[in-house]
Specification:
alpha+beta; 20 strands; flat; 7-stranded mixed sheet; 15 helices; 5-stranded mixed sheet
């Protein structure tokens, strides 16, 4: 295929001349590279910028070889089929596709767009940047905008201070209320999308709806069942009632006591007796005695904690024997490693969060003194803790091996067990093996009885002897760990207190069922209600969470 490339050369005084060139091939390449059919010495052109394919009958296909596209007939395109007369603009070059004649199959005219023409093109394509370039005058739009801002941003919100209830109307309307004046820094938890206003403000000029919150907080627990407790403040409550953003990095959670006491001060009458929770309005003046979570068991033996009101004589049956007085002697205890004085911190260690205490661990806290050795001839051997089957297996394995190997220096053992068998000695007869293993079985049972009822297990646990085919039984140990089930308490926030300030009498307690958990009077020595002046002002949220329903979550249909 023969292409005619006609270049238009402009000379002085408006005269022009033509320079023809011939290109062979179906595709005409355009760009700044040296191998292009039409070379463009323009930095705005890519090395391989575009191509034109002759389709025949005066039809062409123009394709862009770069992401930015190419302008054809005044429009940016990536590929387009055109006819003769189509104009391609690339920087300061204009290419016009012609109708081929004579011996040529396709033709294109290449000309230069002069500076004045380029300026006119840019001007026609540019957007207006000033009012003078439009039909809009300056004065009346300015006055209109000023009046709208004055009315919506000042007069309307300010009127809520003189018209009772008007602010509530505005809050549920598309019009701005007083909150229009007070945008601030968002909470720390929302900082990662602080610039994405639509994440929460899904509807213009409307308050944040609940579904904007629950779309992220999907499994947040509800407070109570609004169908069972038909209280308008509960059923109609919005997330924004308690959680208002733009109040600083730690301003999302409202700590006002009235948010809780407005309902709980007379909750029983509000729910027509449906609620069994006592009426509460102030921690210092109107708060019932604490409810304590204590160990308990169902009829089938399954562990089932029970909650009861704290009293001074309340007992905690955890299944463990422990004497605090014996372990907290001021002059210390005799241990295998010498005299040692114990304190509360030796056994009661806070968890990683500093809130609750770690469970007592026998290996790290008790084993130093309460070792589980069972044979004076093997002082390094011990049975495992907290596994009756493993204890029995360890004893059977130990004495069976001693009986078969021999050399066990115990006058009570048979001769075949006491004799040391040297290499090369004849193997034990069948009768000797039976005698050795019979001794081993009896000796293991004796050691187990000594461990469980004599010097080890029975010291801390309640033990039941074997019956028939059953093994020794150790009463399960169940310590509550969290005694205030419906409240929060953090030891880390009370580091300045001594253990005895709250757990009074621990150093004199001789029984493990003594409940050493304090009641409300102990806490009231330092804490009072929201309006306290001589003690720590403590509102409901200091100890209680709002979202604590055990069955309901906030991811329900509908929004407010």
């Amino acid at each position: 295929m023969r292409w005619l490339i006609r270049r238009v050369l402009k000379k002085g005084k408006g005269s022009i001349s033509y320079e023809d060139d011939i290109h062979f091939g179906e595709i005409l390449t355009i760009g700044r590279a040296a191998d292009q059919a039409i070379f463009l010495p323009d930095l705005r052109a890519a090395l391989n910028h575009a191509s034109v394919t002759a389709l025949g009958n005066g039809q062409y296909r123009v394709e862009s070889l770069i992401v930015a596209g190419i302008r054809v007939n005044g429009e940016i395109t990536y590929t387009k089929a055109v006819g003769t007369g189509a104009v391609i603009e690339l920087g300061s070059t204009r290419l016009t596709l012609l109708d081929a004649r004579g011996e040529f199959d396709a033709a294109v005219e290449v000309s230069t767009i002069d500076k004045s023409e380029q300026a006119a093109i840019r001007s026609s394509r540019s957007k207006p940047t000033s009012l003078e370039q439009t039909w809009i005058a300056k004065r009346w739009p300015s006055w209109t905008g000023f009046i709208l801002v004055l009315a919506l941003g000042l007069i309307l919100p300010a009127s809520t201070h003189v018209i009772p209830g008007f602010n509530t109307v505005l809050r549920y309307s598309p019009l701005p209320s007083t909150s229009f004046w007070n945008p601030g820094e968002v909470d720390a938890a929302h900082q990662f999308f602080a610039t994405d206003c639509k994440r929460c403000h899904q509807h213009a000029f409307l308050m944040v709806r609940d579904n904007a919150c629950t779309s992220c907080h999907v499994k947040t627990r509800a407070h109570a069942d609004p169908a069972r407790f038909n209280i308008p403040e509960l059923g109609d409550a919005r997330c924004g009632t308690c959680h208002q953003d733009h109040n600083g990095e730690r301003g999302m959670v409202s700590r006002k006591q009235s948010l809780c006491s407005d309902c709980h001060a007379d909750l029983k009458s509000r729910t027509a007796g449906a609620s069994q929770v006592a009426d509460i309005s102030d921690f210092g003046k109107a708060h019932p005695e604490f409810h304590i979570n204590l160990p308990g068991w169902a009829g089938n033996g399954e562990f089932m904690p029970k909650s009861m009101t704290w009293t001074a004589g309340l007992k905690e049956n955890s299944g463990l024997k422990f004497n605090h007085e014996k372990h907290l002697k001021a002059d210390g205890l005799n241990t295998p490693n010498g005299r040692k004085t114990l304190t509360c911190a030796n056994c009661h260690l806070p968890d990683a969060a500093g809130s609750a205490m770690q469970p007592i661990a026998f290996e790290s806290m008790c084993h130093e003194c309460h070792q589980l050795g069972f044979d004076t001839l093997a002082p390094g051997r011990e049975v495992p803790h907290a596994d009756v089957a493993a204890v029995t297996y360890t004893l059977d394995e130990f004495y069976a091996r001693r009986g078969l190997e021999g050399g066990y220096a115990d006058a009570r053992a048979p001769t075949i067990v006491q004799e040391r068998r040297r290499p090369g000695s004849p193997p034990m007869s069948r009768q000797e093996q039976v005698e050795a293993l019979s001794w081993a079985r009896d000796r293991a049972r004796e050691a187990a009885r000594t461990l469980f009822t004599g010097k080890a297990c029975v010291t801390c646990h309640s033990i039941s002897p074997p019956s028939g085919e059953s093994d020794w039984k150790v009463a399960p140990v169940r310590v509550s760990g969290v005694w205030y089930a419906d409240a929060r308490f953090s030891h880390a926030r009370h580091e300045t207190m001594k253990c005895a300030d709250c757990h009074a009498g621990a150093e004199r307690s001789q029984a493990s069922n003594d409940l050493l958990i304090p009641g409300i009077d102990n806490c009231r020595q330092c804490h009072a209600g929201a309006h306290a002046s001589d003690r720590v002002a403590s509102t409901c949220i200091a100890c209680h969470a709002y979202h604590q329903s055990k069955t309901l979550t906030l991811d329900k249909p509908g929004s407010r």
